[in-house]
Amino acid sequence: MAIFDKAIQTPSHLNRRYTNVPPKMVLEVDVRVENESMSNDDIIHFRTDKLLEMGVEKIIWIFTLYGKIIVAEKGKDWLTFDWGRDVEILDGISFNIPRYLDEEGITLDEI
């Protein structure tokens, strides 16, 4: 998922496949890529570096199998932590996966 700044991502920048404007934030969930030359970790690091170089401000990776989150922002150390913390997507907008699942009466053993 990508979130764009509406003031910058105007209709003139849109086409059917790509945009020439980087999103403010990218959210990735459970990425698994078939690639014989790179491990999943290598792909995640490579892709994150490329997105940051493109101008993306923040990338959030969610790994449901391990209950971990990685947050990468340009010019900052990448953070890896358990997903039980609030994670800010944009200023004042955050999520907490376990809290949401609990509020909905969902346990991970059931899914």
How would you describe what is shown here?
The chain has a single domain (2-110), classed as tt1808, chain A. The chain is α+β, with helices and mostly antiparallel strands and 111 residues long. The longest helix is centred in the middle third of the chain and has 15 residues, at 40-54. 20% of the residues lie in helices and 27% in strands. Helix 1 links the parallel strand 2 and strand 3 (58-63). It is globular and about 45 Å long. It has a five-stranded mixed β-sheet with strand order 1-2-3-4-5, covered by helices on one side. The chain has two helices and seven strands.
Percent range of helical residues: 10-25%
Terminal residue distance:
22 Å
Give the number of domains: 1
* Oligomer description: single chain
Main β-sheet description: 5 strands, mixed
CATH superfamily, by name, is tt1808, chain A
CATH architecture annotation name? Alpha-Beta Complex
